[in-house]
Design goal:
Number of domains: 1
Radius of gyration: 14 Å
Distance between the termini: 37 Å
Structural class: alpha+beta
Number of helices: 4
Number of strands: 6
Shape: globular
Helix content: 25-40%
Largest sheet: 6 strands, antiparallel
CATH topology: Beta-Lactamase
């Protein structure tokens, strides 16, 4: 196990301690955003977009003000949500249809949030001012974090 994988184990343990007994998704997203923003190096934005009214709407985040609404299939977030797959983008300026919410962002990783029943809930979005910032260790660590978050969902509650 490398240092980055160990770091994600610590981050995920910290997140578990914060969210495991808390059913409120918004509160959990706020704390997850804060942990990621403060614990990941070379990150200038960390947060969530929620799937509402057939588009993504800004949720809890840390960083500069962001785009409020993103159409499905547009930009990295909308593409990740539409395809329901994690996207690692080494240079966002080369991504067809990139939406520049913060001109300082150069790379990005977006993980879709899909409930146990298969419902798209939104995406976790993390931006960096550094090109090629995110790799397969980030992907694995963040997908595990999202899975942990989804495990707290009570799907009988609509938020």
């Amino acid at each position: 196990m490398n240092d980055k994988q160990k770091h994600y184990q610590l981050i995920n343990a910290q997140v578990a301690a914060l969210i495991d007994s808390e059913p409120d998704r918004i509160a959990n997203m706020a704390n997850i955003s804060a942990v990621l923003y403060n614990q990941l190096a070379q990150v200038n934005w960390a947060g969530f977009y929620l799937f509402k009214e057939e588009q993504l709407v800004l949720g809890p985040f840390q960083g500069q003000p962001a785009c409020i609404r993103i159409p499905m299939g547009k930009g990295v977030c909308g593409t990740s949500a539409e395809t329901q797959s994690t996207l690692l983008v080494d240079d966002v300026h080369q991504f067809d249809g990139h939406i520049a919410c913060d001109a300082a962002s150069n790379s990005e990783i977006v993980i879709p949030i899909i409930s146990a029943s298969g419902k798209l809930y939104g995406v976790l979005d993390i931006d960096s001012p550094v090109h090629n910032r995110f790799d397969q260790d980030d992907k694995a660590g963040l997908e595990a974090l999202v899975a942990q978050f989804v495990s707290t969902f009570d799907e009988s509650i609509s938020e």
